[in-house]
């Protein structure tokens, strides 16, 4: 990720107003809220919004970046105290729980995680680190990729979105997946 060029003071204020408005609109209406709703709430023109955030996913990613930074930091802080598979489980469960903050967010999670925001980069780096650690320990099959983890997080998020993210259901679904990717003894 490259450093963003510094913005003029008025452009920075607009950016902050857009992100604040996006947070409010996405919390109220979900991730499917229109860009026009966000621009109207922020008090900026639609062109200003699209210059800063050319897609809904880029706006969602930036609005969500701080949450992802927090999840990644929490994961790094607890990971060494857990067995590799338990650390990966906790990461996936937290990713799914946090995905439920905005209704409809799960459908865009894969694209959002590739957006390049600081939070998305931190989540990807942490997920890859935990996956590698679990694979190195022999707890997870070598053919599992980070993209596979994202697919599972999206599927689990979609499956639990209507239920209000009950942690027990999330833990159950993540457990089913992790049981499926566990390393298996070689067959003779």
Automatic annotation (TrEMBL):
> Is Iron tagged as a keyword?
no
Domain (HTH tetR-type): residue spans on this chain:
12-71
PROSITE patterns, sorted: HTH_TETR_2
Extract the DNA-binding region annotation as residue ranges: 34-53
**Pfam families noted in UniProt:** TetR_C_43, TetR_N
Q: Does the keyword Cytoplasm apply?
A: no
**Listed GO MF terms:** DNA-binding transcription factor activity; transcription cis-regulatory region binding
Q: Name the keywords, alphabetized.
A: DNA-binding, Transcription, Transcription regulation
Cited InterPro entries: Homeodomain-like_sf, HTH-type_TetR-like_transc_reg, HTH_TetR, Tet_transcr_reg_TetR-rel_C_sf, TetR_SbtR-like_C
Q: Which domain of life is it from?
A: Bacteria
Could you tell me what this protein is called?
A: Helix-turn-helix domain-containing protein
Instruction: State the species of origin.
Output: Methyloraptor flagellatus
């Amino acid at each position: 990720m490259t450093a963003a060029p510094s913005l003029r003071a008025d452009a920075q204020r607009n950016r902050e107003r857009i992100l604040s408005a996006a947070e409010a609109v996405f919390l109220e209406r979900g991730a499917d809220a229109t860009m026009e709703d966000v621009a109207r709430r922020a008090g900026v023109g639609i062109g200003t919004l699209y210059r800063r955030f050319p897609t809904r996913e880029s706006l969602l990613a930036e609005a969500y970046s701080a949450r992802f930074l927090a999840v990644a930091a929490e994961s790094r802080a607890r990971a060494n105290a857990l067995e590799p598979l338990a650390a990966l489980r906790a990461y996936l469960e937290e990713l799914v729980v946090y995905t439920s903050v905005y209704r409809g967010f799960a459908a865009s999670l894969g694209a959002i995680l590739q957006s390049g925001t600081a939070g998305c980069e931190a989540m990807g780096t942490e997920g890859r680190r935990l996956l590698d650690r679990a694979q190195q320990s022999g707890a997870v099959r070598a053919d599992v990729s980070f993209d596979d983890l994202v697919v599972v997080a999206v599927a689990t998020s979609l499956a639990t979105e209507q239920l209000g993210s009950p942690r027990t259901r999330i833990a159950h679904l993540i457990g089913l997946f992790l049981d499926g990717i566990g390393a298996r003894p070689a067959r003779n």
